[in-house]
Amino acid sequence: MSSVGYRQLWAADPDGWRAAGAAWAGLVGPLDRRVGGLRAAGGRLRGGWSGVAATAADTRLAGLRDELTSIAPALIEVDQVLAELAGGLAVAKARLSQAVAQAEAAGLLVDRSGGVRVDPATVRPTERAGVAAAGVAAALRAALDGAAAADRVAADRLDDLARAAGAGWASPPPPGRPALGAAPALVSAWWSGLTPAQRRWLIGHEPALVGRLDGLPVAARDQANRLRLDAWRAELLVERRRLLSRVPPGPLASIRLRGVAGRLAGLDALVGRLTAGGAPRAYLLGLDPAGEGRVVVALGDPDHADRVLTYVPGMTAGLDDAPGELGRAARVLERCAALAPGERSAAVLWLDYDAPDLLTEAASAGQARDAGPALHRFQEGLRVSHDGPPARQTVLGHSYGSLVVGVAAREHGLAADALVFVGSPGVGASHAPELGVPPGEVWASSAPDDVIRAARPADELGRRALLGAAPLAAVLGWPDRTGHELWFGHDPSHPGFGGRVFGSGRGGHTGYWDPGNPALDGMARVVLGR
Predict the structure, then answer these.
(1) CA 60, CA 519: separation in Å to the nearest integer?
(2) What CA–CA distance (Å, rounded) separates 16 from 11?
């Protein structure tokens, strides 16, 4: 064990590395403005200049624009590399602190060089003390090895970028692209056959494709999607201008205007989180501003995490309130970090489906069934793109989102080690084993004052409404008249469902993430596998 390594790790500043990465990513904006300036200059030249020289100048300007445009993904990649380094150092420092605390509890001393010895003032130098010292020394070595591994990975990736700067950032790949919706394993195999220069070309020239392909590395999708943020915002501004041009706007146009304003606000808040440079770094894995808006954002890099949570929100979720839904995922992640500071966890907000807006829509399983293939493909993509030993993957559904998760698991299968349902109206299954995850890994919680408890067909009229609004209920043979069925099947928080239940305090339908609610710790412990 190197004494310099021990002191270096104590002195390491993960936040400094994160800030440095954010500064690199912050250069994308000025770069885009410079590209826009060159485009405008070319337009002015073409308006008043013709001939061979004019053609040559226009070609040169176009080449400069392409060169500058190709740099943008590399700037985002530097941010990703340094954020990943910061995350690795933070975990290593947490492990170092745990090792030192372990030493203090055993009456051992850790000197400034990282050496471990018995403190003769508190402990006799016995064989048992020697075993304890060896355990602390091993924990210290593991922390230093983790920091060294993070440093090597970051150095190698930065070296690759430096070499690319001299050899050329990008080169076109061969013909042939996976179709959207292709199997993640096939997408991953295609990507693996490309050179780094070909991958960078695709990110810069075909971001709409790269950003949406499940099975690609999280870093590649994030780079591609960040390049499209301005275009997505421009789409919403065009939609708003079109609606404002209608005089008088009319009630329907007014409703749509409020919707556009909400989506713009949600997008701007997400952009703020994406560019904040805080911990954990946010990765943009998908966005669509159309309709109610869809978005997939990861907090922390799922490809390098030990534990990965995918959170599926429920009714009324859309781009306008995506920042709030992301906050729920963040609170689970914060509890994971508090409970297991020596492990790397990541959380994904998966809002890539059309969530019901009205109770009449939420009474049908149709939108959940429509979402199933996409959620199945996304989870498969996380498995395929993960670097290193497989992460423990947990999928959490809230409210109608629990039905989305349950139906996807039952009908398509989910690459998940555990499923969690909170505030559920039923999950599209009668018993936990139908969901296809390991025994004992279906979890649920229902607050005592959650209104979802009333979502049960208590009389004949309710039963008829259930069967008419939710045909899936008839297929599964509901209602079962046991008194434990909800709108979409047996209550997953009832012992008869066959899952495991963790407690929740009072907080209504949305209080599961409130500070101090035992449900928050319950969700985090499932993610951690504890």
Answers:
(1) 61
(2) 11
Nearest to 385 by CA among 155, 195, 184, 143: 184
Beta strands 489-490; 485-486: pairing state: antiparallel
| CA 309/CA 297 separation, integer angstroms | 12
Task: Using pLDDT thresholds of 50, 70 and 90, give the confidence band for residue 170.
Answer: confident
DSSP run (H or E) holding 298: strand 294-299
Task: Name residue 1's amino acid.
Answer: M
Length of the chain: 530
Give start and end residues of each alpha helix (H) in 120-247.
Answer: 127-167, 184-192, 196-205, 207-210, 218-226, 229-244
**Region 251-269: what's the mean pLDDT?**
92
3-state secondary structure of 308: strand
Q: State percent of the chain over pLDDT 70.
A: 91
180: phi then psi, degrees, rounded to nearest 5: -60, 130
Give pLDDT, residue 471. 44
| Full DSSP string of 447-473 | -TT-GGGG-S--SHHHHHHHHHH-HHH
pTM, full prediction? 0.90
The secondary structure element, H or E, covering residue 517 is none
Identify the weakest region by mean pLDDT among 42-46, 225-229, 308-312, 364-368: 42-46
Contacts of 201 (CB under 8 A, 6+ apart): 70, 170, 171, 172, 173
